[in-house]
Amino acid sequence: MNSQELWVHAYTRLRSCKPITIAHLKQTHTLLIKTTPLPLPTQHPIFPKLTSSPHHKNLTYILSFLNDLDKPDLCLSLYNSIIQGLPSNPTNKTTSLLHVFELLRHMLLNDILPDHYTVPSVLKAFAQCRALREGQQIHAYAIKSGLVLSNVYVNNTIMRLYAVCGFINYARKVFDESPQRDLVSWTTLIQGYVKMGYAREGVEAFFDMCDAKMRPDEMTLVIVLSACSKLGDLSLGRKISRYIDDNGVNPDVFIGNALVNMYLECGDDELARGVFDGMPVRNVVSWNSMISGLAHQGKYKEALDVFQEMQRTGLEPDDVTLVGVLNSCANLGVLELGKWVHAYVDRNQIEADGYIGNALVDMYAKCGSIDRAFRVFQGMKRRDVYSYTAMIVGLAMHGEVDMALDIFTEMIKMGIQPDEVTFVGVLAACSHGGLVAEGQKYFRDMSTVYKLRPQTEHYGCMVDLLGRAGLIGEAVEFVNNMPIEPDAFVWGALLGACRIHGKVELAEAVMEKLLKVEPERDGAYVLMSNIYSSANKWRDAVQLRRTMKEKKMKKTPGCSSIEVEGVVHEFRKGDKSHKRSKQIYKLLDEIMSHINDYGVLAHRSTLL
User: Fold this and answer.
1) Residues whose CB falls within 8 Å of the CB of residue 174, separated by 6 or more in sequence, listed in order
2) What average pLDDT does the segment 240-249 reach?
3) Among 199, 248, 374, 377, which one is least packed by beta carbons within 10 Å?
4) Residues whose CB falls within 8 Å of the CB of residue 315, separated by 6 or more in sequence, listed in order
Protein backbone atom coordinates (compact mmCIF):
# COMPACT_ATOMS: atom_id res chain seq x y z
CA MET A 1 0.00 0.00 0.00
CA ASN A 2 1.55 3.34 -1.04
CA SER A 3 1.41 6.57 0.97
CA GLN A 4 -1.59 7.87 -0.96
CA GLU A 5 -3.56 4.69 -0.24
CA LEU A 6 -2.52 4.87 3.43
CA TRP A 7 -3.84 8.41 3.73
CA VAL A 8 -7.11 7.58 2.03
CA HIS A 9 -7.50 4.66 4.47
CA ALA A 10 -6.57 6.90 7.44
CA TYR A 11 -9.04 9.64 6.39
CA THR A 12 -11.83 7.04 6.10
CA ARG A 13 -11.06 5.63 9.56
CA LEU A 14 -10.83 9.05 11.15
CA ARG A 15 -14.13 10.16 9.62
CA SER A 16 -15.91 7.11 11.04
CA CYS A 17 -14.57 7.40 14.60
CA LYS A 18 -17.35 8.50 17.02
CA PRO A 19 -15.87 9.66 19.26
CA ILE A 20 -12.22 9.75 18.36
CA THR A 21 -9.91 8.12 20.89
CA ILE A 22 -6.38 9.05 21.87
CA ALA A 23 -5.18 5.93 20.04
CA HIS A 24 -6.90 6.97 16.79
CA LEU A 25 -5.38 10.45 16.88
CA LYS A 26 -1.93 9.07 17.67
CA GLN A 27 -2.15 6.67 14.73
CA THR A 28 -3.00 9.50 12.37
CA HIS A 29 -0.25 11.67 13.84
CA THR A 30 2.28 8.82 13.41
CA LEU A 31 1.25 8.40 9.78
CA LEU A 32 1.63 12.14 9.31
CA ILE A 33 5.21 12.00 10.61
CA LYS A 34 6.31 8.86 8.70
CA THR A 35 4.84 9.70 5.29
CA THR A 36 4.50 12.67 3.01
CA PRO A 37 0.76 13.30 3.23
CA LEU A 38 -1.57 14.63 0.60
CA PRO A 39 -2.64 18.27 1.08
CA LEU A 40 -5.42 18.36 3.66
CA PRO A 41 -8.69 19.95 2.50
CA THR A 42 -9.70 23.02 4.49
CA GLN A 43 -12.85 21.44 5.92
CA HIS A 44 -11.30 18.03 6.54
CA PRO A 45 -12.80 16.11 9.49
CA ILE A 46 -9.41 15.94 11.21
CA PHE A 47 -9.86 19.57 12.38
CA PRO A 48 -12.99 19.18 14.50
CA LYS A 49 -11.73 15.76 15.59
CA LEU A 50 -8.54 17.36 16.81
CA THR A 51 -10.28 20.06 18.87
CA SER A 52 -12.86 17.69 20.34
CA SER A 53 -10.38 15.02 21.35
CA PRO A 54 -9.09 14.56 24.89
CA HIS A 55 -5.68 15.72 23.66
CA HIS A 56 -7.16 19.15 23.01
CA LYS A 57 -6.56 19.85 26.70
CA ASN A 58 -2.86 19.35 26.07
CA LEU A 59 -1.64 22.39 24.13
CA THR A 60 1.85 20.93 23.74
CA TYR A 61 0.40 17.99 21.82
CA ILE A 62 -1.72 20.29 19.62
CA LEU A 63 1.30 22.44 18.74
CA SER A 64 3.30 19.29 18.03
CA PHE A 65 0.57 18.14 15.64
CA LEU A 66 0.50 21.56 13.93
CA ASN A 67 4.29 21.63 13.57
CA ASP A 68 4.17 18.35 11.67
CA LEU A 69 1.70 19.69 9.12
CA ASP A 70 2.94 21.19 5.87
CA LYS A 71 2.47 24.94 5.60
CA PRO A 72 -0.34 24.74 3.01
CA ASP A 73 -2.37 22.73 5.54
CA LEU A 74 -1.99 25.41 8.23
CA CYS A 75 -5.07 27.42 7.36
CA LEU A 76 -7.11 30.03 9.24
CA SER A 77 -10.09 27.72 9.72
CA LEU A 78 -7.87 25.20 11.50
CA TYR A 79 -6.64 27.78 14.02
CA ASN A 80 -10.14 29.16 14.52
CA SER A 81 -11.45 25.68 15.18
CA ILE A 82 -8.75 25.07 17.79
CA ILE A 83 -9.13 28.48 19.52
CA GLN A 84 -12.93 28.22 19.64
CA GLY A 85 -12.67 24.81 21.27
CA LEU A 86 -10.06 25.73 23.87
CA PRO A 87 -11.39 24.71 27.29
CA SER A 88 -11.59 27.48 29.87
CA ASN A 89 -9.64 26.94 33.06
CA PRO A 90 -11.14 29.20 35.77
CA THR A 91 -8.80 27.75 38.41
CA ASN A 92 -5.70 28.66 36.41
CA LYS A 93 -6.35 31.79 34.37
CA THR A 94 -2.66 32.24 33.56
CA THR A 95 -2.58 28.86 31.82
CA SER A 96 -5.66 29.73 29.73
CA LEU A 97 -4.09 33.03 28.66
CA LEU A 98 -0.80 31.36 27.72
CA HIS A 99 -2.66 28.81 25.58
CA VAL A 100 -4.41 31.54 23.60
CA PHE A 101 -1.24 33.58 23.16
CA GLU A 102 0.79 30.53 22.09
CA LEU A 103 -1.74 29.72 19.37
CA LEU A 104 -1.86 33.36 18.21
CA ARG A 105 1.94 33.40 18.05
CA HIS A 106 1.94 30.18 16.04
CA MET A 107 -0.57 31.72 13.61
CA LEU A 108 1.44 34.89 13.09
CA LEU A 109 4.72 33.01 12.63
CA ASN A 110 3.03 31.14 9.79
CA ASP A 111 1.78 34.43 8.22
CA ILE A 112 -1.87 33.75 9.10
CA LEU A 113 -3.78 36.81 10.37
CA PRO A 114 -6.76 36.60 12.77
CA ASP A 115 -10.14 37.32 11.18
CA HIS A 116 -13.67 38.15 12.39
CA TYR A 117 -14.01 34.58 13.77
CA THR A 118 -10.64 34.52 15.53
CA VAL A 119 -10.95 37.88 17.34
CA PRO A 120 -14.28 37.19 19.10
CA SER A 121 -13.07 33.75 20.23
CA VAL A 122 -9.88 35.27 21.66
CA LEU A 123 -11.82 38.09 23.35
CA LYS A 124 -14.21 35.60 24.97
CA ALA A 125 -11.23 33.74 26.42
CA PHE A 126 -9.78 37.02 27.73
CA ALA A 127 -13.13 38.04 29.24
CA GLN A 128 -13.30 34.73 31.16
CA CYS A 129 -9.84 35.48 32.57
CA ARG A 130 -10.57 39.20 33.16
CA ALA A 131 -7.49 39.90 31.02
CA LEU A 132 -8.10 43.59 30.29
CA ARG A 133 -4.63 44.59 29.06
CA GLU A 134 -4.39 41.65 26.67
CA GLY A 135 -7.93 42.35 25.46
CA GLN A 136 -6.99 45.95 24.73
CA GLN A 137 -4.20 44.68 22.50
CA ILE A 138 -6.69 42.63 20.49
CA HIS A 139 -9.00 45.67 20.41
CA ALA A 140 -6.15 47.68 18.90
CA TYR A 141 -5.61 44.98 16.26
CA ALA A 142 -9.34 44.99 15.43
CA ILE A 143 -9.19 48.76 14.88
CA LYS A 144 -6.09 48.57 12.67
CA SER A 145 -7.50 45.69 10.63
CA GLY A 146 -10.83 47.44 10.14
CA LEU A 147 -12.82 44.70 11.88
CA VAL A 148 -14.53 47.17 14.23
CA LEU A 149 -15.99 49.00 11.26
CA SER A 150 -17.21 45.94 9.43
CA ASN A 151 -18.35 43.39 11.98
CA VAL A 152 -20.91 43.95 14.76
CA TYR A 153 -20.02 40.59 16.36
CA VAL A 154 -16.45 41.80 16.93
CA ASN A 155 -17.72 45.03 18.53
CA ASN A 156 -20.10 43.13 20.80
CA THR A 157 -17.33 40.90 22.15
CA ILE A 158 -15.12 43.96 22.73
CA MET A 159 -17.97 45.58 24.68
CA ARG A 160 -18.47 42.44 26.70
CA LEU A 161 -14.77 42.28 27.61
CA TYR A 162 -14.83 45.83 28.98
CA ALA A 163 -18.13 45.28 30.81
CA VAL A 164 -16.92 42.04 32.43
CA CYS A 165 -13.66 43.72 33.49
CA GLY A 166 -15.63 46.54 35.14
CA PHE A 167 -14.92 49.31 32.62
CA ILE A 168 -18.45 50.17 31.59
CA ASN A 169 -17.40 53.60 30.28
CA TYR A 170 -15.10 51.89 27.76
CA ALA A 171 -17.95 49.58 26.76
CA ARG A 172 -20.20 52.60 26.26
CA LYS A 173 -17.56 54.29 24.10
CA VAL A 174 -17.27 51.21 21.86
CA PHE A 175 -21.08 51.10 21.66
CA ASP A 176 -21.36 54.79 20.73
CA GLU A 177 -18.70 54.46 18.03
CA SER A 178 -20.11 51.26 16.51
CA PRO A 179 -21.46 51.81 12.97
CA GLN A 180 -23.79 48.84 13.49
CA ARG A 181 -25.76 47.78 16.57
CA ASP A 182 -27.94 44.75 17.03
CA LEU A 183 -29.95 43.31 19.93
CA VAL A 184 -26.81 41.78 21.45
CA SER A 185 -25.11 45.21 21.45
CA TRP A 186 -27.94 46.80 23.44
CA THR A 187 -28.30 43.84 25.80
CA THR A 188 -24.54 43.80 26.48
CA LEU A 189 -24.62 47.51 27.34
CA ILE A 190 -27.71 47.20 29.57
CA GLN A 191 -26.32 44.13 31.37
CA GLY A 192 -22.98 45.86 31.88
CA TYR A 193 -24.66 48.84 33.54
CA VAL A 194 -26.82 46.68 35.82
CA LYS A 195 -23.99 44.36 36.91
CA MET A 196 -21.77 47.35 37.71
CA GLY A 197 -24.45 48.80 39.99
CA TYR A 198 -25.72 51.44 37.54
CA ALA A 199 -29.28 50.14 37.44
CA ARG A 200 -30.81 53.52 36.55
CA GLU A 201 -28.46 53.92 33.57
CA GLY A 202 -29.31 50.37 32.48
CA VAL A 203 -33.04 51.19 32.42
CA GLU A 204 -32.36 54.43 30.52
CA ALA A 205 -30.38 52.45 27.93
CA PHE A 206 -33.38 50.12 27.60
CA PHE A 207 -35.69 53.03 26.80
CA ASP A 208 -33.12 54.37 24.30
CA MET A 209 -33.19 50.93 22.72
CA CYS A 210 -36.99 51.09 22.41
CA ASP A 211 -36.73 54.57 20.88
CA ALA A 212 -34.30 53.11 18.31
CA LYS A 213 -37.11 50.70 17.28
CA MET A 214 -35.10 47.71 18.52
CA ARG A 215 -37.32 44.98 19.96
CA PRO A 216 -35.96 43.40 23.16
CA ASP A 217 -36.03 39.68 23.74
CA GLU A 218 -36.80 37.79 26.92
CA MET A 219 -33.19 37.95 28.16
CA THR A 220 -33.07 41.74 27.81
CA LEU A 221 -36.33 42.14 29.74
CA VAL A 222 -35.14 39.86 32.55
CA ILE A 223 -32.06 42.08 32.94
CA VAL A 224 -34.19 45.27 32.95
CA LEU A 225 -36.56 43.79 35.55
CA SER A 226 -33.57 42.93 37.75
CA ALA A 227 -32.53 46.59 37.48
CA CYS A 228 -36.00 47.65 38.69
CA SER A 229 -35.60 45.20 41.61
CA LYS A 230 -32.29 46.78 42.59
CA LEU A 231 -33.79 50.26 42.40
CA GLY A 232 -36.87 49.21 44.38
CA ASP A 233 -38.88 51.31 41.93
CA LEU A 234 -42.38 49.82 41.75
CA SER A 235 -43.78 52.32 39.25
CA LEU A 236 -40.87 51.67 36.89
CA GLY A 237 -41.29 47.92 37.30
CA ARG A 238 -45.00 48.15 36.49
CA LYS A 239 -44.14 50.18 33.39
CA ILE A 240 -41.85 47.38 32.18
CA SER A 241 -44.59 44.86 32.99
CA ARG A 242 -47.07 46.82 30.85
CA TYR A 243 -44.52 46.89 28.02
CA ILE A 244 -44.32 43.08 28.18
CA ASP A 245 -48.12 42.79 28.01
CA ASP A 246 -48.60 45.43 25.30
CA ASN A 247 -45.91 44.06 22.99
CA GLY A 248 -46.88 40.41 23.10
CA VAL A 249 -43.63 39.25 24.64
CA ASN A 250 -43.67 35.58 25.53
CA PRO A 251 -44.00 35.52 29.34
CA ASP A 252 -41.78 32.48 29.83
CA VAL A 253 -40.72 31.15 33.21
CA PHE A 254 -37.65 33.41 33.31
CA ILE A 255 -39.70 36.59 32.81
CA GLY A 256 -42.25 35.30 35.31
CA ASN A 257 -39.54 34.73 37.91
CA ALA A 258 -38.06 38.17 37.25
CA LEU A 259 -41.50 39.81 37.68
CA VAL A 260 -42.16 37.96 40.93
CA ASN A 261 -38.77 38.94 42.29
CA MET A 262 -39.17 42.56 41.16
CA TYR A 263 -42.58 43.00 42.81
CA LEU A 264 -41.37 41.47 46.07
CA GLU A 265 -38.21 43.58 46.11
CA CYS A 266 -40.42 46.62 45.55
CA GLY A 267 -42.66 45.61 48.47
CA ASP A 268 -45.83 44.53 46.62
CA ASP A 269 -46.41 40.91 47.55
CA GLU A 270 -49.98 40.93 46.18
CA LEU A 271 -48.84 41.70 42.63
CA ALA A 272 -46.04 39.15 43.05
CA ARG A 273 -48.56 36.52 44.12
CA GLY A 274 -50.78 37.38 41.17
CA VAL A 275 -47.94 36.83 38.70
CA PHE A 276 -46.86 33.67 40.51
CA ASP A 277 -50.36 32.16 40.48
CA GLY A 278 -50.72 32.97 36.79
CA MET A 279 -47.50 31.27 35.70
CA PRO A 280 -48.28 28.19 33.59
CA VAL A 281 -44.88 26.71 34.40
CA ARG A 282 -42.94 27.18 37.64
CA ASN A 283 -39.47 25.92 38.46
CA VAL A 284 -37.62 25.88 41.75
CA VAL A 285 -36.45 29.47 41.14
CA SER A 286 -40.10 30.58 40.98
CA TRP A 287 -40.81 29.12 44.42
CA ASN A 288 -37.52 30.44 45.81
CA SER A 289 -38.40 33.95 44.62
CA MET A 290 -41.68 33.84 46.56
CA ILE A 291 -40.23 32.25 49.70
CA SER A 292 -37.11 34.44 49.93
CA GLY A 293 -39.00 37.57 48.88
CA LEU A 294 -41.67 37.17 51.53
CA ALA A 295 -39.04 36.38 54.17
CA HIS A 296 -37.13 39.52 53.14
CA GLN A 297 -40.31 41.53 53.77
CA GLY A 298 -40.65 40.01 57.22
CA LYS A 299 -43.66 37.91 56.20
CA TYR A 300 -42.18 34.72 57.52
CA LYS A 301 -45.44 32.87 58.10
CA GLU A 302 -46.53 33.52 54.52
CA ALA A 303 -43.13 32.33 53.31
CA LEU A 304 -43.60 29.03 55.14
CA ASP A 305 -47.12 28.71 53.69
CA VAL A 306 -45.62 28.99 50.19
CA PHE A 307 -43.04 26.33 51.08
CA GLN A 308 -45.82 23.98 52.15
CA GLU A 309 -47.52 24.62 48.78
CA MET A 310 -44.26 23.76 47.08
CA GLN A 311 -44.04 20.50 48.99
CA ARG A 312 -47.51 19.52 47.82
CA THR A 313 -46.40 19.87 44.19
CA GLY A 314 -43.64 17.32 44.75
CA LEU A 315 -40.90 19.69 43.57
CA GLU A 316 -37.61 19.12 45.39
CA PRO A 317 -36.21 22.17 47.21
CA ASP A 318 -32.65 23.31 46.56
CA ASP A 319 -30.12 25.05 48.80
CA VAL A 320 -31.72 28.48 48.26
CA THR A 321 -35.14 27.12 49.25
CA LEU A 322 -33.79 25.56 52.44
CA VAL A 323 -31.97 28.72 53.48
CA GLY A 324 -35.13 30.80 52.95
CA VAL A 325 -37.20 28.34 54.99
CA LEU A 326 -34.62 28.19 57.79
CA ASN A 327 -34.50 31.99 57.92
CA SER A 328 -38.29 32.10 58.32
CA CYS A 329 -38.19 29.37 60.99
CA ALA A 330 -35.53 31.32 62.88
CA ASN A 331 -37.58 34.51 62.95
CA LEU A 332 -40.82 32.74 63.92
CA GLY A 333 -39.25 30.34 66.40
CA VAL A 334 -40.61 27.36 64.45
CA LEU A 335 -38.25 24.71 65.76
CA GLU A 336 -40.05 21.61 64.50
CA LEU A 337 -40.02 22.67 60.84
CA GLY A 338 -36.40 23.76 61.24
CA LYS A 339 -35.56 20.29 62.54
CA TRP A 340 -37.40 18.77 59.56
CA VAL A 341 -35.19 20.82 57.19
CA HIS A 342 -32.11 19.61 59.08
CA ALA A 343 -33.29 16.01 58.74
CA TYR A 344 -33.91 16.59 55.01
CA VAL A 345 -30.35 17.88 54.66
CA ASP A 346 -28.96 14.78 56.40
CA ARG A 347 -31.25 12.38 54.53
CA ASN A 348 -30.18 13.75 51.14
CA GLN A 349 -26.51 13.85 52.15
CA ILE A 350 -26.31 17.63 51.67
CA GLU A 351 -23.28 19.10 53.40
CA ALA A 352 -24.31 21.34 56.28
CA ASP A 353 -21.64 23.85 55.31
CA GLY A 354 -21.74 27.31 53.79
CA TYR A 355 -25.13 28.98 53.60
CA ILE A 356 -27.10 25.96 54.83
CA GLY A 357 -24.82 25.32 57.80
CA ASN A 358 -24.89 28.99 58.79
CA ALA A 359 -28.68 29.10 58.45
CA LEU A 360 -29.03 25.98 60.65
CA VAL A 361 -26.83 27.51 63.35
CA ASP A 362 -28.85 30.74 63.26
CA MET A 363 -32.19 28.90 63.28
CA TYR A 364 -31.35 26.68 66.25
CA ALA A 365 -29.94 29.60 68.22
CA LYS A 366 -32.99 31.80 67.63
CA CYS A 367 -35.36 28.91 68.38
CA GLY A 368 -33.76 28.42 71.78
CA SER A 369 -31.82 25.24 71.00
CA ILE A 370 -28.29 26.54 71.46
CA ASP A 371 -26.89 23.02 72.05
CA ARG A 372 -28.07 21.88 68.62
CA ALA A 373 -26.69 25.08 67.10
CA PHE A 374 -23.29 24.33 68.60
CA ARG A 375 -23.35 20.72 67.36
CA VAL A 376 -24.06 21.91 63.81
CA PHE A 377 -21.27 24.46 64.14
CA GLN A 378 -18.80 21.85 65.36
CA GLY A 379 -19.75 19.51 62.51
CA MET A 380 -19.10 22.09 59.79
CA LYS A 381 -16.01 21.24 57.74
CA ARG A 382 -15.67 24.73 56.32
CA ARG A 383 -16.49 27.70 58.51
CA ASP A 384 -16.44 31.31 57.38
CA VAL A 385 -16.99 34.65 59.09
CA TYR A 386 -20.77 34.14 58.92
CA SER A 387 -20.53 30.74 60.63
CA TYR A 388 -18.54 32.15 63.54
CA THR A 389 -20.69 35.27 63.75
CA ALA A 390 -23.94 33.27 63.90
CA MET A 391 -22.50 31.12 66.68
CA ILE A 392 -21.15 34.09 68.66
CA VAL A 393 -24.41 36.06 68.38
CA GLY A 394 -26.42 32.95 69.32
CA LEU A 395 -24.30 32.22 72.40
CA ALA A 396 -24.45 35.88 73.47
CA MET A 397 -28.24 35.83 73.11
CA HIS A 398 -28.39 32.79 75.40
CA GLY A 399 -26.10 34.33 78.01
CA GLU A 400 -23.24 31.92 77.26
CA VAL A 401 -20.69 34.70 77.57
CA ASP A 402 -17.51 32.67 78.07
CA MET A 403 -18.30 30.32 75.18
CA ALA A 404 -19.07 33.26 72.88
CA LEU A 405 -15.72 34.89 73.63
CA ASP A 406 -13.91 31.54 73.29
CA ILE A 407 -15.42 31.10 69.82
CA PHE A 408 -14.25 34.60 68.91
CA THR A 409 -10.72 33.73 70.06
CA GLU A 410 -10.82 30.52 67.99
CA MET A 411 -12.01 32.54 64.99
CA ILE A 412 -8.99 34.83 65.19
CA LYS A 413 -6.59 31.89 65.60
CA MET A 414 -8.07 30.33 62.44
CA GLY A 415 -7.17 33.50 60.55
CA ILE A 416 -10.76 34.53 59.84
CA GLN A 417 -11.27 38.29 59.85
CA PRO A 418 -14.29 39.35 61.93
CA ASP A 419 -16.79 41.82 60.49
CA GLU A 420 -19.01 44.48 62.05
CA VAL A 421 -21.78 42.01 62.93
CA THR A 422 -19.27 39.77 64.72
CA PHE A 423 -18.43 42.61 67.06
CA VAL A 424 -22.09 43.31 67.76
CA GLY A 425 -22.25 39.74 69.10
CA VAL A 426 -19.00 40.07 71.05
CA LEU A 427 -20.04 43.38 72.66
CA ALA A 428 -23.52 41.99 73.44
CA ALA A 429 -21.87 39.04 75.19
CA CYS A 430 -19.76 41.40 77.27
CA SER A 431 -22.86 43.42 78.13
CA HIS A 432 -24.80 40.35 79.29
CA GLY A 433 -21.81 39.20 81.33
CA GLY A 434 -21.02 42.60 82.86
CA LEU A 435 -17.50 42.44 81.39
CA VAL A 436 -16.85 46.16 81.16
CA ALA A 437 -13.05 46.10 80.77
CA GLU A 438 -13.20 43.31 78.19
CA GLY A 439 -15.94 45.09 76.24
CA GLN A 440 -13.93 48.32 76.16
CA LYS A 441 -10.90 46.41 74.89
CA TYR A 442 -12.87 44.70 72.11
CA PHE A 443 -14.38 48.06 71.12
CA ARG A 444 -10.90 49.60 70.82
CA ASP A 445 -9.58 46.57 68.92
CA MET A 446 -12.29 47.02 66.31
CA SER A 447 -10.58 50.06 64.85
CA THR A 448 -6.96 49.63 65.97
CA VAL A 449 -6.47 45.90 65.27
CA TYR A 450 -9.16 44.93 62.76
CA LYS A 451 -9.50 48.27 60.96
CA LEU A 452 -13.28 48.29 61.28
CA ARG A 453 -15.15 51.53 61.80
CA PRO A 454 -17.63 51.27 64.71
CA GLN A 455 -21.25 51.96 63.73
CA THR A 456 -24.12 53.20 65.86
CA GLU A 457 -24.98 49.58 66.79
CA HIS A 458 -21.56 49.19 68.40
CA TYR A 459 -21.86 52.48 70.27
CA GLY A 460 -25.31 51.38 71.45
CA CYS A 461 -23.84 48.11 72.73
CA MET A 462 -21.20 50.04 74.66
CA VAL A 463 -23.81 52.35 76.20
CA ASP A 464 -25.84 49.28 77.18
CA LEU A 465 -22.70 47.65 78.65
CA LEU A 466 -21.85 50.69 80.78
CA GLY A 467 -25.49 51.29 81.72
CA ARG A 468 -26.12 47.72 82.88
CA ALA A 469 -22.99 47.91 85.03
CA GLY A 470 -24.33 51.06 86.72
CA LEU A 471 -21.70 53.33 85.15
CA ILE A 472 -24.29 55.91 84.09
CA GLY A 473 -21.85 58.84 84.18
CA GLU A 474 -19.38 57.01 81.96
CA ALA A 475 -22.22 56.09 79.59
CA VAL A 476 -23.28 59.74 79.28
CA GLU A 477 -19.69 60.83 78.69
CA PHE A 478 -19.27 58.08 76.09
CA VAL A 479 -22.34 59.32 74.18
CA ASN A 480 -21.20 62.94 74.34
CA ASN A 481 -17.81 62.01 72.86
CA MET A 482 -19.14 59.92 70.00
CA PRO A 483 -17.61 60.90 66.63
CA ILE A 484 -20.94 60.21 64.90
CA GLU A 485 -24.42 61.49 65.69
CA PRO A 486 -26.18 59.21 68.21
CA ASP A 487 -29.30 57.55 66.80
CA ALA A 488 -32.39 56.05 68.41
CA PHE A 489 -30.50 52.84 69.23
CA VAL A 490 -27.92 54.72 71.32
CA TRP A 491 -30.41 57.01 73.08
CA GLY A 492 -32.73 54.04 73.68
CA ALA A 493 -29.88 52.11 75.34
CA LEU A 494 -29.17 55.06 77.63
CA LEU A 495 -32.87 55.48 78.43
CA GLY A 496 -33.04 51.78 79.28
CA ALA A 497 -30.10 52.21 81.67
CA CYS A 498 -31.93 55.11 83.32
CA ARG A 499 -34.92 52.85 83.89
CA ILE A 500 -32.80 50.10 85.47
CA HIS A 501 -31.11 52.49 87.89
CA GLY A 502 -34.01 54.93 88.49
CA LYS A 503 -32.34 58.02 86.95
CA VAL A 504 -35.53 59.99 86.31
CA GLU A 505 -34.03 63.45 85.61
CA LEU A 506 -31.44 62.08 83.22
CA ALA A 507 -34.16 59.97 81.58
CA GLU A 508 -36.18 63.13 80.87
CA ALA A 509 -33.17 64.74 79.14
CA VAL A 510 -32.52 61.57 77.13
CA MET A 511 -36.21 61.39 76.25
CA GLU A 512 -35.99 64.83 74.60
CA LYS A 513 -33.03 63.69 72.53
CA LEU A 514 -34.78 60.48 71.54
CA LEU A 515 -37.94 62.29 70.43
CA LYS A 516 -35.88 64.52 68.13
CA VAL A 517 -34.55 61.42 66.38
CA GLU A 518 -37.82 59.42 66.35
CA PRO A 519 -40.75 61.75 67.09
CA GLU A 520 -43.43 59.37 65.80
CA ARG A 521 -42.37 56.17 67.56
CA ASP A 522 -44.22 55.09 70.68
CA GLY A 523 -41.25 53.29 72.24
CA ALA A 524 -39.77 56.33 73.99
CA TYR A 525 -43.15 57.27 75.53
CA VAL A 526 -43.74 53.74 76.76
CA LEU A 527 -40.29 53.45 78.33
CA MET A 528 -40.51 56.90 79.95
CA SER A 529 -43.94 56.09 81.32
CA ASN A 530 -42.50 52.96 82.91
CA ILE A 531 -39.72 55.05 84.49
CA TYR A 532 -42.27 57.49 85.94
CA SER A 533 -44.42 54.70 87.33
CA SER A 534 -41.39 52.99 88.90
CA ALA A 535 -40.59 56.28 90.67
CA ASN A 536 -44.25 56.68 91.76
CA LYS A 537 -44.61 59.77 89.59
CA TRP A 538 -48.16 58.89 88.60
CA ARG A 539 -49.13 62.38 87.47
CA ASP A 540 -46.24 62.53 85.03
CA ALA A 541 -47.10 59.06 83.74
CA VAL A 542 -50.73 60.06 83.18
CA GLN A 543 -49.62 63.27 81.42
CA LEU A 544 -47.44 61.23 79.12
CA ARG A 545 -50.36 58.96 78.25
CA ARG A 546 -52.48 62.03 77.56
CA THR A 547 -49.79 63.37 75.21
CA MET A 548 -49.76 60.05 73.36
CA LYS A 549 -53.54 60.22 73.01
CA GLU A 550 -53.43 63.80 71.71
CA LYS A 551 -50.86 62.80 69.12
CA LYS A 552 -53.03 59.78 68.26
CA MET A 553 -50.17 57.47 69.11
CA LYS A 554 -50.95 53.91 70.10
CA LYS A 555 -48.69 51.45 71.80
CA THR A 556 -47.64 48.75 69.36
CA PRO A 557 -49.35 45.66 70.74
CA GLY A 558 -47.11 42.89 71.97
CA CYS A 559 -47.01 39.83 69.77
CA SER A 560 -46.16 36.26 70.71
CA SER A 561 -46.24 33.04 68.75
CA ILE A 562 -46.26 29.36 69.54
CA GLU A 563 -45.79 26.30 67.35
CA VAL A 564 -48.19 23.40 67.85
CA GLU A 565 -47.85 20.33 65.63
CA GLY A 566 -45.99 22.30 62.96
CA VAL A 567 -48.56 25.14 62.86
CA VAL A 568 -47.59 28.63 64.06
CA HIS A 569 -50.22 30.50 66.10
CA GLU A 570 -49.74 34.24 66.60
CA PHE A 571 -51.35 36.29 69.39
CA ARG A 572 -51.48 40.01 70.13
CA LYS A 573 -52.67 41.85 73.21
CA GLY A 574 -56.46 41.73 73.28
CA ASP A 575 -56.53 39.58 70.17
CA LYS A 576 -59.71 37.48 69.80
CA SER A 577 -59.31 36.47 66.18
CA HIS A 578 -58.13 32.93 66.93
CA LYS A 579 -60.82 30.32 66.32
CA ARG A 580 -60.32 28.94 69.84
CA SER A 581 -60.03 32.32 71.57
CA LYS A 582 -62.93 31.60 74.00
CA GLN A 583 -61.21 28.47 75.29
CA ILE A 584 -57.86 30.28 75.48
CA TYR A 585 -59.24 33.21 77.51
CA LYS A 586 -61.18 30.86 79.77
CA LEU A 587 -57.98 28.97 80.58
CA LEU A 588 -56.12 32.26 81.06
CA ASP A 589 -58.74 33.41 83.58
CA GLU A 590 -58.34 30.16 85.47
CA ILE A 591 -54.56 30.62 85.60
CA MET A 592 -54.93 34.22 86.85
CA SER A 593 -57.38 33.05 89.49
CA HIS A 594 -54.87 30.48 90.78
CA ILE A 595 -52.14 33.15 90.84
CA ASN A 596 -54.37 35.49 92.88
CA ASP A 597 -55.26 32.70 95.29
CA TYR A 598 -51.59 32.04 96.01
CA GLY A 599 -50.66 35.72 96.17
CA VAL A 600 -47.97 35.37 93.54
CA LEU A 601 -48.78 38.61 91.71
CA ALA A 602 -45.53 40.55 91.53
CA HIS A 603 -45.21 44.28 92.04
CA ARG A 604 -46.17 45.96 88.78
CA SER A 605 -43.66 48.59 87.80
CA THR A 606 -45.21 49.45 84.46
CA LEU A 607 -48.45 51.04 83.34
CA LEU A 608 -48.20 50.47 79.57
Assistant:
1) 148, 155, 158, 159, 162
2) 90
3) 248
4) 282, 283, 284, 287
